[in-house]
Predict the 3D structure of the following.
Amino acid sequence: MRTREIERIKRKLEKLKEEILAGMGHFEENMLHKNRKDNTGDVSSFTTHPADMGAETAEYEKAYLLASKGDRLLRLINQALERIEKGEFGDCIECGCQIPIERLRAIPYSPYCVDCKEKLENGDYVS
């Protein structure tokens, strides 16, 4: 793979990383460190209506799932950046074949070629 293409992908990965970190910071600031009273502007931090409690719980769960996905994506990005630094970027970590540039442009943090990813998703083997 050409050095220029790797540099382009590296910049894309770094930008994605910044965006995820900013989003996770927003989540932490707005969801984790505030109580119900702060989040809703209510006078009391207690609610008596079950629907209010359910809606609030659903919002926390949704925010947590988004943060979990961000954390998982951040791990993949960091691993891809490590592979770039080691000169191993672009090779499938399962079979060692070169990952097509089109795939890396679309999913720059992908550690697998299409065939190996399909096998993993189908449960054919585990790395």
Remarks:
- The mean pLDDT is 80.
- The helical segments are 3-32, 36-40, 50-86, 101-106, 114-122.
- The longest helix spans residues 50-86.
